[in-house]
Amino acid sequence: MNTLVLKFDTSGAGHCLYSELIDLNRLGSLKVRRASNIEFNASRQEWEVRNRSGRVLHSNPSRSVCLAWAQNHFNR
């Protein structure tokens, strides 16, 4: 996916998934934190998208499908 959704809150801080489509550093100092982890579950033989608290949000045998799902889910 080549779409970058950049939202600004009332304080003027911008929020988005990190992307190199635009140079985000030109907007100011960055504060980056991970939105999710994508890891392989050997017992289920599937890739899992987990949020920061560790809850499984999505799973699929294809890592590419999980990456695309996470991009779409968090890029709202």
Report on this structure.
This protein is of the alpha+beta class and 76 residues long. The chain has one domain (7-74). 16% of the residues lie in helices and 28% in strands. It is built from 1 helix and 5 strands, in the order E-E-E-E-E-H. The protein has one helix at residues 63-74; strands spanning 7-8, 14-15, 36-41, 46-51, 56-60. The protein is elongated and about 45 Å long. The two termini are 13 Å apart.
Which descriptors apply to this entry?
single chain; 76 residues; alpha+beta; two-stranded antiparallel sheet; 1 helix; 5 strands; 28% strand; elongated
**Which regions are unreliable across 5 or more consecutive residues at pLDDT < 50?**
none
Average pLDDT level: 92
User: Helix proportion of residues, in percent?
Assistant: 10-25%
| Total domain modules | 1
Instruction: Give the tally of β-strands.
Output: 5
Q: Kindly provide the radius of gyration, computed on alpha-carbon positions and rounded to a whole number of angstroms.
A: 14 Å
- Secondary-structure-based class equals alpha+beta
Strand content: 25-35%
General form: elongated
Biggest sheet layout? 3 strands, antiparallel
- Looking at how many chains there are and whether they match, the oligomeric state comes to single chain
Strand order of the largest sheet: 3-4-5
Distance between the termini: 13 Å
Q: If helices are DSSP runs of H or I spanning 4 or more residues, what is the number of helices?
A: 1
What's the helix-strand series? EEEEEH
